[in-house]
Design goal:
Strand content: under 5%
Helix content: 55-70%
Number of helices: 3
Radius of gyration: 20 Å
Length: about 100
């Protein structure tokens, strides 16, 4: 019978990146998006094909990267929206 190869352990930073990316899209409205982006970059380096020690979770790191980028864009949209509303309210004339 052929022997099966043991899969390398999954990088914890890849799991954290995916969880933070999903949270940035659902519950936190993008607040944890930049943190997930940092974890995604770390996980991409740790799961690179030539990384030592070999770790799995490259797909998790890529999914975390994508969701964290979307969460960061959502955060940027909300910041621009709030600043725009403050500017528009400040420029409305008060003498009717």
């Amino acid at each position: 019978m052929p022997a099966y190869a043991v899969a390398p352990p999954t990088a914890g930073s890849a799991i954290a990146a995916l969880v933070l990316g999903i949270l940035s899209l659902t519950l936190c409205q993008g607040i944890v998006g930049p943190v997930g982006l940092i974890f995604s970059i770390i996980a991409m380096r740790r799961t690179a094909p030539g990384a030592v020690p070999v770790q799995g979770g490259r797909g998790l790191a890529i999914a975390g990267l994508v969701t964290s980028i979307l969460g960061t864009l959502l955060l940027a949209f909300w910041i621009v929206y709030i600043v725009l509303m403050f500017v528009l309210v400040a420029t409305v004339p008060t003498d009717y």
